[in-house]
Structure formats: structure tokens, C-alpha cells
Amino acid sequence: MIFNSEISGQQQHTTSPVVTGGSVIALVYNGGVIVGTDTLCSYGSMAAFKNVQKIAQISKNTIYASSGEFSDFQQVVKELAKIDRSALQYDDGVHPSPKDYGNFLARLSYKKRCKINPLYLQNVVAGFHNGERYLALVDIYGTYLESNFITTGFASYFCKAIISNYWNENCTLDQAKQVIRECFKVLFCRDCRAHDVIQLAYVDEQGTHIEEQERVDTKWDFNGFKFRANEKLHTQ
Amino acid sequence: MLKHLYDTDCVTWSPQGKLFQVEYAMEAVKQGSICLGLKSNENVVLCSLKRQPSELAGYQEKQFKIDDHMAIAIAGLTADARVLCKYMRTECLEYKYTYESHHPVGRLVYKVAEKSQHKTQSGAKRPYGVGLLVAGIDPNGVHLFETCPSGNYYEYKCQAIGSRSQAARTYFESWFHLFEKSTLEQLILHGLSAIKKAIMEDEELNEKNVEVGILGKNQKFTHLNAQELRDYIAKLDAFNPNSQIQQE
To answer: SS3 string of B110-161?
Structure first.
């Protein structure tokens, strides 16, 4: 999906992304919502920025992550923070709920899509409000979907089987974390633009917790790698 | 006091520190027929007395729904009230479109107050000649606000504005300590009793000249219909707030 605006002197619209983030995987669990991303921003096929935090805390009980053009991610974080700050201006103790942010982002994305100048992102908004878990996907077109689990990018192809086999919406936090780690393990093996360092963040009744980056376990000592196939044939 | 020297427009102060145009606008509110509001922990009730310009005419509506969770009762220039009502409804719709949730009540009242204040600081404009009682429910709780042509706004437990509203306020002063824990029915009867204090001797409350609107935490704004109004008015004579004290 690439629009090439070659008309000079007129406003250029987003044609294709430049610096991109990889898949986002988000799950609800018993007592909250957890979001996982890797820490890589790619410059095309180059693994350019390997230490990037791609999960942002928007408010006390809302977090936001996205895959796609990273500068758009940074812009969205600014836009959502603006809403939170406006609560200070009115000074009335009313704070937006996670759903308010999700819907706002859907409206913003839709508006930009209508001008053929989209925010080149698959957005995930997650939160915990009034005892209820909230998880929503807003895509590049402004489609808004609330769900119990969300995958963006390549995770949609590789990880849904893992999620449906090992996760349910009432699992524990540790179980959910393990599922996400397993998913990123598979992604690192199969997605060329994935990275083995990931970051998890979860929201529960107490608030937001963004964890330190961690490296997924990967296994490379397969016999097939140790003893190359054609060598074996040769000796036989 | 030579009022007429300082009351031509909003941009002239009087030596006593008054803006006479704003004060005159507030007089317009006092000339409107009475409307009052009262709230409990769960509900807000708005009651108003409707005026009939002549026997041939209908009764002037005084309460308007702004959104499912919010409504206003007006006293003063109805035309000005329509402008504010339209503004409030538009703001609520926009908020709902953007955030999929209800506009916080206090914030909308603040916006109306800002709009009203703007009109008091210009040579070419006049203040709105209407006072609103804004009833609304949001995650912060149950609210009743009053707005003024001056641009001030206040939150109340119960309030009455318009002509002869002092009589209703006196009633409130005696009984408002009961409102917090009142049931919806008790609240409505209190409201109607307060309005009854404010009508002329030769007037009577009936389902035509009284308007009652109710809002609840799980109830969207509705008006009582003619039959319900008749039933409540019939219960007024037997209504004794003292019995509520004995219950507690």
C-alpha cells in the first residue's frame, strides 16, 4: 500500500514507513492486561536502534504500544499526553479512562486516513479501569476493535496458534508472560525484522508496571546447525 | 447613585465596583418563572413552573435534555437559553464522538461559564439573560450547578432561581439535610412542596403548569408524564417531611 505523491509544491503525504517497530502482543489475564514488544527499530532491513522502549505510559492506568512508523508512535504519545494534561487545566478531578484514549486514537487515525495521510501504525491501547480490563486495537485505517488478545504485524501470523493453545483470559500474570516470551522466541526465529530483546508492561489495579528489558531464550545448538547436512552426506 | 452614568455597556465600571449591565442581566433571571433542583446520593430532580403567556397559548417548556446524563432548567430569556442549550448539546455530542463517553458535567458548566464571561467583557456584546440549573451525573458523582449571566457558576445541594424563589429556598433550608438519603419519590415530593411555596395564592399546581425532570445513576433523563405528575401532586397534601426523620 504505497501512495507516491509526485506533485511538487503540494503537500506530500505519508508514502511508506522509514523507521519501523516490530510486532506487539497484548493479552488480558486475571487481574490486568499485559503488553509485550521487542526493543528494535529497523531502518528497512537494518537493525538500526536496538534499545528502544516502545511501550509508553499514557496515564496512571493506561499504556500504549504500536508497530509501524516509529516517529508516528512518538507523535501519538504526545497527542495522548495532551489529553491527560488537559485534565490539569480544568482541575476537576476527571481523568480519561483507557477507553477514552482508545476511542480518541480511533477518531484521530480515521481522520488522518481520510486525508490519505495516515498514522502508519497498528496501535494497541491497554488499561485497567473501575475493576475492568481494557484492551483495544486501532489500526492504520482507524478501525477500532476491543478484544481479549491482540497481535500486530508478523505476530498475527506466527503467534495466534501459541496464544490459543497456551493462554486463556483468566490465566495468571506469570502464565501470560510465559506465553508472550514464547511468542517472541518464535518471532525471532521467523521474522527477519524481529529482535531477541523484549520488554513487557502490565496494568492492574495498582497501576502501571513497565519491566526491564529481557533477552528471550533461544536455542541454536541443533544438530542440524552443528553438523551441516551436506557434510554428513559427504562422509557417508 | 447615578446608575445611568455607568450602565450603558459592559466595559464601564461603576465607582462602587459594579458592572451594571451584568447586574441587569441577572435581574432578567429573577423575572423568569421559578425553577429548582435538588439532589440525593443517587438522583437529581428538576422542578419548574411553566408560564402560559395567554389562555390561548401553550405552556413554555423550561427543562431541556442535554444528553442522557445531563439536563438543564432555565429561568430568564428563553431565546438566550436556546443558544446555550444548543451549545451544550453540541459539546456533548462531540465529546461522545471523540471519547465514546459522557461529557463530565462540571467541565461543560465551566465551558458555559467561560462563554458567558466573554459576553461581559466586550463593548459590542451583552450578557446572556438566562440562568441555568444544570443537573448531571458523571463518574465524579451526582451534580447540580447554577450558572449566571455574570459567568460565575456554583455547585449546589439544592437551589431555586426565578421569581419568588426565596420561598422555595427557605423550604430547602429547613429540609435539605434529608435530601442526601432521600428516595426518588421523596425527592420529587420535596421539590413539588418547595414549588408550592412559591406560587401565587390564586394559583394551583397541576400537571399542565408544572414540569418535573429526573436523572439517576442508572436512569437517563426523563420527564414525568401527565399521569405521574397528577399522582405526585395528589400526594403533596399528605406529604410530611417529619416522617422521613423518624425513619432514620
So the answer is: HHHHHHHHHCCCCCCCCCCCEEEEEEEEECCEEEEEEECCCCCEEECCEEEE
Which residue numbers in chain A have pLDDT < 70?
Answer: 1-12, 14, 229-236
What Å distances lie between residue B216 and B75, B101, B227, CA to CA?
A: 23, 17, 20
Pairwise CA distance, residues B69 & B54, whole Å: 34
Express each pLDDT in B88-116 by its tens digit: 999 999 999 999 999 999 999 999 999 99
Question: B148: which 3 cell numbers?
Answer: 449566571
**Buried/exposed code over B112-135 (b: 16+ C-beta within 10 A; e: otherwise):** bbebbbebbeeeeebbbbbbbbbb
Placement of cell 527499530 in the chain: A41
Picking from B98, B112, B137 by the largest number of A CB atoms within 10 A of its own CB, the best residue to mutate is B98
ipTM: 0.82
3 state DSSP class of B43: strand
Give strand pairing partners of A43. A19, A46
Write down the pTM of the prediction: 0.88
Specify whether the CB–CB gap between B73 and B133 falls below 8 A.
Answer: yes
Chain A nearest-CA distance from B155, in A, is 12
Nearest alpha carbon to residue B44 among B230, B212, B229, B236 = B212
Determine the straight-line distance between the first and last CA of chain A, rounded to whole angstroms: 50
Beta-carbon separation of B107 and A96 below 8 A: no
A104 interfacial to chain B (CB closer than 8 Å): yes
Nearest 5°: the CA angle A61, A75, A145 is: 55
Cα B28 from Cα B18, distance rounded (Å) = 17
The 10s digit of each residue's pLDDT in B147-193 is: 999 999 999 999 999 999 999 999 999 999 999 999 999 999 999 99
On the 0-12 / 13-18 / 19+ scale of CB atoms within 10 A, A159 is buried
